[in-house]
Design brief:
By secondary structure, this protein is an alpha/beta fold. The protein has ten helices and 17 strands. The two termini are 41 Å apart. It folds into two domains: 133 residues, 3-Layer(aba) Sandwich (Rossmann fold); 238 residues, Dihydrodipicolinate Reductase, domain 2 (2-Layer Sandwich).
Length: 391
Amino acid sequence: MRKLNVGLIGAGFMGKAHVIGYSNMPKLFWPAPAMPILKKVCDIVPEIAEEAKERFGFEQCCTDWKEVVNDPTIDVVSICTPNDSHAEIAIAALEAGKHIICEKPIAATLEDAERMEATAVKAAENGIISMNAYQYRRVPALVLAKKFIDEGSLGELLNIRCTYLQSWSADPNSPLSWRFQKKIAGAGTLGDIASHVIDIAQYLGGDIDEVVSMMKTYIKERPVQEGGVDLLGTVKLGSDAKRQAVDVDDEDTFLVKFKNGTVGSIEATRNAWGRNNYITVEVHGTEGTVFFNYERLNELQVCWAKDPDDRRGFKTIYTGPAHFYGEATWNIPGMNIGYGELKTIEMYDFIKAIATGEQPSTNFKVGCRVEKVCHAVEKSSETNKWEKVID
């Protein structure tokens, strides 16, 4: 079986998720398309790099990402760093002939996203794979919804409504991590979580053509975080901590028009008390409706217009072995998958793309298209007008 040496850049929360995906992929998907070998892990904090080497089982560790990119033994690079470094690392890795999976959003600016896409297109001519890590579209229930849409079971699409609501930054004492700094993140809620449901909306309904938006910042300053680890709201700092200004969005609400005539809306916030990882997707068509809630990610709610009047309503489909990726997960509906299995599915798609030479569904062109929508959302919030998504 072909072996692929993996270099991981960024050993925090998402780095751990990538490692779980690489490690579990052959355990679930067997025979695997190729065998990932955890070769080298990089983090700018030496102690974190050393700990990740031992904890995750890498052979080597370093603190300079160039050591990963320029290592001739590395085949695959996972980029799990803050957004402002994605472009520099990804472009260097692609030019070095490495296959890449890069966390979302693709970059902190549209200019960087376009440079990454252009480099990826050129690298693809030599068989190099690039993938943006939009894992939520790979939830089996959403893949099933996509099947219903593509086969015409929902009829003509009328409306796609998406939300992504979290609460981890609703507390003003949550630290000022890089996610609240525009120079590093590029945007706040928009890039961090709204990008996920933009990707889902375009996966289900095709390209978004126009948007009109509102963006709000509720918490104007936060206590300065000590150290480089992204704590994601799990630690609160006291009132005596030094504070700095927040210059990114807390909430985004926007209407969308798709190129195919479908309309819809997207809402995203990290300030919704009571909501944890509340991703919802509702698609209305002339022949029915589907509804998905990530907090019940193994379920898809469906309602068919042709059902008799006295029994029309939502029914629940529990995803399992009869559905997408079901042959590799668990044998009985209701045994359920979680975030770890979802990242494993993502890594399977990535490694399979390398093995077959076919670019994945979330390639850099798709990631750049999401960034173009985000750019239009930001522009609309300034002009208070409908803005076109520029291709």
